[in-house]
């Protein structure tokens, strides 16, 4: 058994298959999941695991060259907005209307659903390379 890092075998395997430019949607329990991408549903109950916990874990495992979130996050979910600002400072986070984020999510290679029950706790990550 793995000692640390991501223990969920479905998520660990999906992350290992990602390449440069692939998209990973990290979403709350209410985000519509597009047809097509591989889905790893981590939701256990409302709020578990949280968006913050999942995003923190993923960012320790992935190289991310960019991220996109909904413009509405700033008004509707201050906690998620602060978290995204911390992780993606200095213009590394693109903001688009929520409907556009849903459209962009259809092109993701992986969707990771959290148990987050607050609105707009969603981000589309674009994978980078480690060299």
What does this structure look like?
There is one protein chain. The protein is α/β, with parallel strands linked by helices and 131 residues long. The protein is built from five helices and six strands. It has helices at residues 9-16, 51-61, 73-76, 78-87, 98-105, and strands at residues 23-27, 38-41, 64-70, 93-96, 110-113, 123-127. It has a six-stranded mixed β-sheet. The longest helix is centred in the middle third of the chain and has 11 residues, at 51-61. It starts with 8 loop residues before the first helix and ends with a strand. The mean pLDDT is 95.
Gyration radius, in Å:
14 Å
Report, as a whole number of angstroms, the end-to-end distance: 28 Å
Strand order of the largest sheet: 2-5-1-6-3-4
- Uncertain regions: pLDDT < 50 for 5+ in a row? none
Largest sheet: number of strands, sense, barrel closure:
6 strands, mixed
C-alpha geometry: globular
- Indicate the mean pLDDT: 95
Secondary structure category: alpha/beta
Strand content: 15-25%
Record field, number of beta strands: 6
Brief overview, please?
The chain has 131 residues and is α/β, with parallel strands linked by helices. The protein contains five helices and six strands; from the N terminus they run αββαβααβαββ.
Essential attributes:
single chain, 131 residues, alpha/beta, six-stranded mixed sheet, globular
How are the elements arranged and paired?
Blueprint: H1 9-16, E1 23-27, E2 38-41, H2 51-61, E3 64-70, H3 73-76, H4 78-87, E4 93-96, H5 98-105, E5 110-113, E6 123-127
